[in-house]
Amino acid sequence: MQKSSHLRKLVFIALLTAQGIVLGLLEQAIPFPFAFAPGAKLGLANIVTLISLYTLSFKEVVFVIVMKTLLTTVLGGTFSTFLYSGMGALVSFIGMYLVKQLGEKRVSMIGVSATGGILHNVGQLMVASWMAKSWTVLLYLPAMSIVGIFAGIAVGVAANYALAHIKVLQYFSKK
User: Fold this and answer.
1) Which among 27, 52, 92, 170 could bridge 116 via Cys, Cβ 3.0 to 4.6 Å?
2) Tens digits of residue pLDDT in 164-173
3) Confidence (pTM)
4) Number of domains in the chain
5) How many other C-beta atoms can be found within 10 angstroms of the C-beta atom of residue 74?
6) How far apart are CA 112 and CA 104, in angstroms?
7) CATH number for the domain including 94?
8) pLDDT tens digits along 92-118
């Protein structure tokens, strides 16, 4: 029975990782129409990060994020894509993890996601300012924060909906 449970968890982690990769690659193919926030994206792959955050252990979430970032870069990115995505994912994850620790009564999944949306942009702008050797890149932060909040809300709503259905699937799979 324990083997079956462990195998189920590994399959779940693999599926989340694969879904994150597919969403990441799909999003790379979609141009973002807002010139005031260059490089801004909706962050669809963060749906997977949120679901992982609410269903897996800390180590397992880190594994999903690292694999998703690495494989998305290998399949459709460059080294600079890896730097931007990696730093954005790292800063975003740390912030979402800490905010989630406040508890569901204080902050919803949508609030956790909005935090992640803002902090993902902060991480990416840190890389951009390092690469440009200038802090003036951070002037994009207000515009990108607005985009990050709205994107985070949209991603949070989608992840909340998906998580409810994942729980239903897990419930029926035990019978």
Assistant:
1) 92
2) 887 655 544 4
3) 0.86
4) 1
5) 10
6) 10
7) 1.10.1760
8) 999 999 999 999 899 999 999 999 999
